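Hey everyone, long-time lurker, first post.

I ran two proteins through the pipeline my lab uses and got sequence/structure pairs for each. Pasting them in order. The first:
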Amino acid sequence: MRAAIQQETGRDKLEVLDDVEAVGFGPGRVRIRIRATGLCHSDLSAMNGVLPQPAPFVPGHEGAGEVLDVGDGVTGLRPGDRVLMCWLPACGDCPSCKRGQTHLCLAGFMNAGTPNFRRPGGDVFGFAGTGTFAEEVVVPADCAVPIPDDVPYEIAALIGCGVTTGLGAALNTAKVAAASSVAVIGCGGVGISVIQGARACGAAQIIAVDPVAARREAALRFGATEAVAPEELADAKARITGGEGFDYVFEVVGKSATARTAYETTRRGGTLCVVGAGAMDDTFQVNMFELFFDEKRILPSLYGGGDVLRSYERAIALWRAGRIDLEGLITHRVRLDGINDALDQMRSGTALRTCIEI
């Protein structure tokens, strides 16, 4: 079968090869034919080494498709079922799951160390234990979540990561209050989803911050009340909040420099929500006096900070009701052969989400 492979960490281009085999099928696992997958910035971060991932590997973790086969012991799934990919399934038995923090379960991360694919030259891993830039993938059954018939594959794929992450940061982690002021730093697909989540919560003012003009324009279409370039943020803070700072500030870039800007843009007693996935050697610093004196809440948000299955259902309900726009997030479409064009579109900031049709 065909798949796009990152041969070595640090390479800018993927190789689309046709000698790849999905492996590992057996009890408790399912084989999925991928129909659509989104390109998430985390895929780029894995390619350049910001996020740890053994190589060679097949990127992609935001996918949807149909079940081809189920292994022994699998219940609730059968061939032909339409599913989205959950890259962080909950085991149900670990301390995090028992506390109700299923999004902190480590079982899904452990999958990343087991090869999902094979080529004549040896084993190939799947990013985050999945690897959706391939025609087929074998994953644990908990990674395959059934979707209703009215949800297109490309929409389901987005819900599998970026939409759930962004909406959840606003609804689950920060719990944005009605009539509050919000700033979102970084307005790609996840940042736009944060904006939509803040709007669904009833925020009065939503300021989008991004260096790319096209993304600022898009943010306004998705519910931002104003969009500014990073160098204009200080003026917006002074003008909109009287210099006090915003009630909620979301950092959706994954860098300590923008996290520090977000902290300084948050009012005393306000909430800084860190959504971007950054590097292990990039340290965010606050001094002990300001931490005590300003009493700002610093809340990281992993995968939307809540039960992901419930978050999927909520995203579908909001989409059906017309409360959020998911079709509009897809600004580009390519086939698997065009994957490197999709990478360039994301690096340049011209794409919110590129749908790879497989």
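...and the second, right after it:
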Amino acid sequence: MTQPPYGYGPVPPGGQPVPPRPGAPYGQPAYRPAPGYGQPGYGQQPGYPSGYGQPGYGPPPGYGQQPGYPVHGYGQRAPMPYGPPGRPPQQRKSGGGWIALLLIIVVVVVGGLVRGAISHGRHSSTSSGPGPSMTYTPDSNGGVSETGTNPLLTDPNTTLIPAKCSYSTWSTQVDTARKFFETAAACLESAWKPVLAQKNLPFQSPTLNVSATTDGITTPCTGSTSNFAAFYCPANKTIYMPISQLQTELFKDNWIVYLSVFAHEYGHHVQAMAGILRKANSDRVDAGVRSDRGLELSRRIELQANCFDGMYLGSSSNGGSLTTSQITLARRDAHGRGDQRGDMRDHGTAENGGTWFEIGVDKDRAAQCNTFTASASSVS
């Protein structure tokens, strides 16, 4: 099984997104959490495939110290993908997980041995931005390597300032979708960059890769597998948004859902810039990525990205760029995504996912998004 970047990433066993119940109003949770998770009444819908699970976070088993790299620090471990909860339907193939894992390990080993030089693989012509380098070099300017005590999270007054944002028109046509995400990225940068600067934390714009499908995309976090949805790869600071994986047949032109997915991925970039990912990733590898502690750290990372997502959407709404009905739809969607039976428990329950998103919307304070000092039950 591939454990990808942060956000909606490569697909672990389990979850597939589920459409709303027939006749239910739009905004009904689109993702089925495991029995007992999330809101009352959530569950498998008659005639629908098993529910969507969470995005893939964390390194796969076998990731560890790269030759010649210091022990601590994100980027000094094998790259991990991060993605939000919910993935498009994927067919399980016998042995596919092991093949993907072997591919990732090969990438890590080769990257460690040649770490200075070679850049492999190009994106399809439908993607935006340069092809990711397969050489993984530790980032020496990645913020403060702390989680709960990170400067971004310790000031109770750190907030995003509401601002008007002119989102471009949404369409599933690649060039139009790319423009939509580019305008969203510019707005997200305007919101988060001043906050990081205020805390003397570095900022670098992420690369945006928008493509029609996942075909032909090779990344430092996923290797050459095409089994991934939207995700953030901190190894090359790139947000991948394959349109075919956004469940557009379900959400139609309700672009607030795609904006929320993107804001979640951008939240992982903010974590990377602050140094939160570097510390959390190192701690997770030390604990064992599939250990109870390792999975808890994964949930804390993902739920914090939910909260950062909510902060941005809330501030954008307060700036007059999003309507109350759009925020309501985003809230419902957030409560419909969560770990389910068969998943690795690496993203959190639907209830907690929705709760942290709403904390972001309603509080708009980074300190309120400090999942690393929160109780274990609130990140279960």
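Reply from user beta_strand_b:
Welcome! Quick read of the second one: Residues 8-78, 86-138 have pLDDT under 50 and may be disordered. Residues 235 and 257 are 26 Å apart (CA to CA).
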